[in-house]
Amino acid sequence: MQMDAVDQRIIALLIADARSSYAEIGAKVSLSAPAVKRRVDRLRADGVIKGFTAVIEPAAVGWTTEAFVELFCTGRTTPAQITVATRRHPEVVGAYTVSGQADALVHLRAADIGHLEQALERLRAEPFVTSTRSMVVLSRLVETPTAVPL
């Protein structure tokens, strides 16, 4: 799929505010609203745009505690096994394979320390997890949606 500078600008504008109308976006990229819609439809069909969503402030819905947890796994644990296991836990907001000593890094959000501890214990109970190392987040300094280089 080839994207030009206009496609990249449309994506950046949607990242900034997915509720923008095609006319508003068109005014910023010098295209008509129907032309923007055609481009967005193509970007969706090509899998560049996977969907549109609301970004929620976790504290506003009571999830004020978060941590990053390094998972250390048995020797033959696959990324697919980690994916399946972490999706079973509603507190998991991200899971990644990483370089270094840990096999994966898991981002957890919970209502409070007690809830975080329960989620961590359930994660530790996965059969392939041999140990974990946790870091509780004190404050979020920078958190941005996916950016596109312009």
Describe this structure in words.
The protein has 150 residues and is an alpha+beta fold. Helix content is 36%, strand content 20%. A four-stranded antiparallel sheet has the order 2-3-1-4, covered by helices on one side. Helix 2 crosses helix 3. The mean pLDDT is 93.
Structure, briefly:
Helices cover 36% and strands 20% of the residues.
Task: Please tag this protein with its features.
transcription regulation, alpha+beta, 5 helices, 150 residues
**What is the helix content?**
25-40%
Can you count the beta strands?
4
Low-confidence stretches: none
Summed up, the helix count is: 5
Strand order of the largest sheet: 2-3-1-4
Sheet of most strands: 4 strands, antiparallel
* Structure class: alpha+beta
Q: Give the strand content.
A: 15-25%
Shape: elongated
The N- to C-terminal Cα distance equals 17 Å
Order of helices and strands: HHHEHEEHE
What is the arithmetic mean of pLDDT? 93
Radius of gyration (Å): 20 Å
Topology:
Blueprint: H1 5-16, H2 22-29, H3 33-45, E1 65-73, H4 79-87, E2 92-97, E3 104-110, H5 113-124, E4 129-136
Helix pairs in contact: 2-3
InterPro entries: AsnC-type_HTH_dom, Dimeric_a/b-barrel, Tscrpt_reg_AsnC-like, Tscrpt_reg_AsnC/Lrp_C, WH-like_DNA-bd_sf, WH_DNA-bd_sf
Keywords: DNA-binding, Transcription, Transcription regulation
Protein name: Lrp/AsnC family transcriptional regulator
